[in-house]
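Intended use. Records like the one below are meant for learning the mapping from a protein sequence to its folded structure. Do not use them to infer anything beyond what is encoded.
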Amino acid sequence: MLDSLKEKVVSIIEQKSDVTSCLQRICELLKKEVYYYDWVGFYFRNGEKEELKLGPYAGEPTDHTIIPFGKGICGQVALSNQNFVVPDVTAQDNYIACSITVKAEIVIPLFVNGENIGQIDIDSNTPDPFTKDDERFLEFVTAEVAKIL
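Structure written out for the chain above:
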């Protein structure tokens, strides 16, 4: 299923529309096509500040529009530059709850010229749904997105 979405992601990026609408369409595509992707969004470094700012997303609105580096899963990825897969959010001490329905989260950093400039963040209401295939697919997505940033 995920591999079949790669072509659609590339197609969105190749349409050469503005970056924000491109990212928005990717979020909507992933949320619609992957049943356990209940919230899909991008966070980006907020200028020179040590914080992330919410970019385009698909899913329920969130109060977490600014996340300090180190706080929550997204904030940890901003510092570690590593993928972070959380099979059970209740087992994480440094988790920022966006919704009581969220059971799992995956965050993949987005690099441009070797620098971590943001990430894709996905919440799932399904316990432990993410596999290595999700990681590889989302790494593909962030690499494609990096081409237009």
